[in-house]
Amino acid sequence: GAVVSQHPSRVICKSGTSVKIECRSLDFQATTMFWYRQFPKKSLMLMATSNEGSKATYEQGVEKDKFLINHASLTLSTLTVTSAHPEDSSFYICSATQGWQPQHFGDGTRLSIL
Amino acid sequence: ELKVEQNPLFLSMQEGKNYTIYCNYSTTSDRLYWYRQDPGKSLESLFVLLSNGAVKQEGRLMASLDTKARLSTLHITAAVHDLSATYFCAVDTGNQFYFGTGTSLTVIP
């Protein structure tokens, strides 16, 4: 069964709305969670790395104020796309890991901004 | 910056044939992963390769790692239609985790 739950799986909303995506590790404590973005027919692009209780580390070119990441507990990280616009439409995938264990990926969230 | 390149980017092959996908990376790493992605879905972990010379096989897929050459291969044996998907390698250097460019595989009946 799934060890990482990502919610929601699909979001369609109007431009200017803020959208929150949740990523939960179900049966282990995730010391680190990752957020990725994927454009159609492209590879995954790491957006940020999030360690529990500390600020996320963002990759170069990723706007911190646009993509707010909170990792408040060892089982939950959230990504909030603030004031979303059509160019933010994408497939967002989270993953979680414990120590040096391989990453477990969520099912992804398809975000469409109209 | 770490670069992870896969070849080919697109692959169309007939059922029953064999083929190899290559993953080249630009820096030292002892941890390499292979994933499968079906359209509209997230990633499914296929293999984790943790040392030079590692070889793992699952069904018609076999993955290998040569850390000296900074090369991993994913070999497909006697392809079947169900293997149609996009395959990604990913490299973990400890400080960085980057996905390859992906190989879109279509197996034709």
Number of DSSP helical runs of chain A: 0
**Tally of alpha and pi helices of chain B:** 0
Radius of gyration of chain B: 13 Å
Oligomer: heterodimer
Number of E-type strands of chain A: 11
Encode the helix/strand succession of chain B as letters.
EEEEEEEEEEE
The averaged pLDDT of chain B comes out at 93
What spatial form of chain B do the alpha-carbon principal axes imply? globular
Helix-strand category of chain A: mainly beta
Q: Indicate the proportion of strand residues of chain B.
A: over 45%
- Average predicted local confidence, pLDDT of chain A: 92
Strand segment count of chain B: 11
Shape of chain A: globular
Main beta-sheet annotation of chain B: 6 strands, mixed
Helix and strand composition category of chain B: mainly beta
Q: Spans of chain B of 5+ residues with little confidence (pLDDT < 50)?
A: none
Description:
With 114 residues, chain A is mainly beta. Helices cover 0% and strands 53% of the residues of chain A. In chain A, strands 2, 4, 5, 6, 9, 10 and 11 form a 7-stranded mixed β-sheet that branches. Chain A has a 4-stranded antiparallel β-sheet with strand order 1-3-8-7, with no helix packed on it. In chain A, strand 5 (44-51) and strand 6 (57-58) form a beta hairpin. Chain A is globular, with a radius of gyration of 13 Å. Chain B is mainly β and 109 residues long. Chain B contains no helices and 11 strands. Chain B has strands at residues 4-7, 10-14, 19-25, 31-37, 43-49, 55-58, 61-66, 71-76, 85-92, 97-99, 103-108. In chain B, strands 2, 4, 5, 9, 10 and 11 form a 6-stranded mixed β-sheet that branches. A 5-stranded antiparallel β-sheet of chain B has the order 1-3-8-7-6, with no helix packed on it. Chains A and B meet through strand 5 and strand 10 of A and strand 5 and strand 10 of B.
